[in-house]
Amino acid sequence: MRVLVTNDDGIRAPGLMALRGALLPLGEVLAIAPEGPRSACGHAITLHKPLRLMPVDVPDGGRVFAINGFPADCVALGASEHLGGRPDIVVSGINVGPNLGVDMVYSGTVAAAREAAICGISSFAISIVAYDVLDFGPAAEFALELTRALCTYELPTGTYLNVNVPAVPRAEMKGVAFTRQSRIRYDNRIERRTDPRGGTYYWLTGDRIDRGSQPEADVEAVDGNRISVTPAHLDVTEEKLLAALRGWDLKWPA
Amino acid sequence: MRVLVTNDDGIRAPGLMALRGALLPLGEVLAIAPEGPRSACGHAITLHKPLRLMPVDVPDGGRVFAINGFPADCVALGASEHLGGRPDIVVSGINVGPNLGVDMVYSGTVAAAREAAICGISSFAISIVAYDVLDFGPAAEFALELTRALCTYELPTGTYLNVNVPAVPRAEMKGVAFTRQSRIRYDNRIERRTDPRGGTYYWLTGDRIDRGSQPEADVEAVDGNRISVTPAHLDVTEEKLLAALRGWDLKWPA
Known about the structure:
Number of helices of chain A: 7
Oligomer: homodimer
Distance between the termini of chain A: 59 Å
């Protein structure tokens, strides 16, 4: 079995190496990750400049590469014939920080899983709901279990999984929940500041806001100490609005 | 009425100025766009460095700014109190090049419309299905008409529109089609090359492949010389797979 692991926290992130280590018993594990952090890079890909692969030494002699691109690039390159051809499964993570609700839009971790789905490869993204992670153990173990499951069960074309693991000791975890993407958003505050030379600059920030509770939402699962597994698809067509649009009076050509 | 226009081709792109010019009759038009091209930047946002706004002079004295960020940043900043508060509508484009099917994932143009939807602002992305555009006229006119329509009809929360305009003379256009996101993909070829110093580098490339026809797909509309308007949503939960996952035998905790 051939697995490709990647992330958006970069090649030096301990979550990547924890993931790689957990999956090594399954067979050949190729790791390709950005040379530095690419948090919030979304589904960016590199079309307009050359990509370079930089081999990284690891004690077990395995195949690990840094790249001057984005997580989605890692999947495109990692699935190419130049690195031995298509993997059976792509796993992206282990991300430090949640990817719940609207986070899925901004996340490079999730983008890598989405890119795999575009390429027709089974995949999941996995994140820990904390910004200061000391123990990747439970998340790494679950990644192994889910990767094994993806050998047995097939993901439908154009779908992938988004996993969030609560940051609680193993003994406090209450199992796995299959969930919907929640409607959490951020309030998008922008701070205006002045630099030492008197120039104005802006920081994007914002606090999480929950827009009403939903049945079986990702955020409720992790708040309840359960591992959240959200199935996602590529097709974003809004069918109800499609029907409504037909009633619009659009004068064109005028 | 207040409109925010942006794009991913950058502040100097003629499509942005054509769009801005077309919408000026509607009221106040604020333009904020990346300082340079950001094609294929997906839904990247700038969280880890300061954003700077650079005023751009235009003959009519209007408010135009370049920013050192991504299209989604333009929406976040353009909707903030620092620039006068939330616009009524966000329009992103006019992009040179199609945003059909899977292009929606990679496109910064579409990401700007999606970011507006996240912020609760009506929005659409508009693209011309050609890479060498001489006449932005028909697309700009349609943008005006659709922006007017968005004053009359309300987009449901969490939705936005993706517009693709065929690159044919106005007389050959056959009206508007409300469409579904097609399943077109790219075959993701990676070219390995050698630089003048003997180093290896890679280019991402690929040809479009159609994965079977769909009723009312975006690509079929533009191939038939119709303007394609695809309604899209933010929620990517795959309900069928959610039901199937409950049958999976996931041994965790082991």
